[in-house]
Amino acid sequence: MKSIASAPAKIILFGEHFVVHGTKAILAAIDKRVTVTTTFTENKTIKVNSELGTIEVPISSSHEEVESEFRPFIFLANKMISQHPNVSGLEITIDSDIPIGVGLGSSSACCVAAAASIFGLFKEWLSEEILMVSIEAEKTIFPDTSGADCTVCTYGGMIEYPSIKKIDNTFDLNLLIANSMIPHSTKNSVEKVNKFKKNDEERFSQLCDLESRLIDEVIVDMKNNDVTTLGLKMSENQKYLEEIQVSNDTLRNMINSLNEISLGSKITGAGDGGCIIALVNDDNMDKVPALLGKDKKCFSAKIDTKGVV
Ligand code: PMV
């Protein structure tokens, strides 16, 4: 028997980092997905195959005994195996078209799809359950996660977090995603922001208030299909991200290079590398590669209304 599940990548349109400190955020699932296939085996092991490599550990192993990138899968497998002592082995295979470590939620999408695939071998699951368990799984690598990424990967579409209210985007956002090709560590960037907060609690709290206000306004702009104002607010959000020091010269140069053709642009995800997003008119899309240079990868993304399936 085989259980197959898939989950989408994500972008954060507004509110990364501040969301870890309790502020709202707006996220969207995009049309790149990870697929996880789980099968029973007779090998008395849990085997995980991914583009990062393969591991096979005895069925009794704890997730803490394996390298961090494999921990969520062992954690999720153990959760089910502990309730079904007759299981003699599981093989989990991950196929992904989401670039790793660049702020597109690869790790969260893997946790969500793996939870659904592994649980699906044993029972029918509900999205709420998959969300809860996938956040637990992600915490085995990144204990400070806000949970926002797993939430949008589970439900799909565009959402406000933490309320999980769906935002209907009646207009077609032309979202350009450009990868700086600098891998980042979400954990390190979040720690850096924690230090910023510790050094200047007052300014950090003002920035959280500014971010909250910006997001409230953005929700109205979206309802009014006001793409121009939305773009300006993305650039405003970028100023806050600059101030908390998760930007760098490469990301700034990318954003500046797109200025003449974009309505607005910003980092998406933890920053310090990874990706930027920009609102670009369709007519200008073909100008992007020349403006960014050959060493950056870019693609246009559509919002994926489908969450975990
Ligand atoms: O770069 P990513 O995809 O790991 O996104 C991180 C988003 C943060 O707000 C920085 C952390 C979080 O848990 O929300």
Short description:
The protein has 309 residues and is an alpha+beta fold.
Question: Which descriptors would you attach to this protein?
Answer:
single chain; 309 residues; alpha+beta; seven-stranded mixed β-sheet; four-stranded antiparallel β-sheet; 11 strands; binds (3R)-3-hydroxy-3-methyl-5-(phosphonooxy)pentanoic acid
Description:
The protein has 309 residues and is an alpha+beta fold. The protein has helices spanning 71-81, 106-120, 127-139, 148-155, 186-199, 201-223, 227-243, 249-258, 288-292; strands at residues 2-14, 25-40, 45-50, 53-58, 90-96, 158-161, 165-166, 175-179, 262-268, 275-280, 297-301. The strands form two sheets. Strands 1, 2, 3, 4, 5, 6 and 7 form a seven-stranded mixed sheet that branches. Helix 2 crosses helix 4, helix 5 (186-199) packs across helix 6 and helix 6 packs antiparallel against helix 7 (227-243). The longest helix has 23 residues, at 201-223. The protein is globular and about 60 Å long. The model has no long low-confidence stretch (mean pLDDT 95). The protein binds (3R)-3-hydroxy-3-methyl-5-(phosphonooxy)pentanoic acid. Residues 16-17, 19-20, 103, 105, 145-146, 148-149, 186, 190, 269-270, 274 line the site of (3R)-3-hydroxy-3-methyl-5-(phosphonooxy)pentanoic acid.
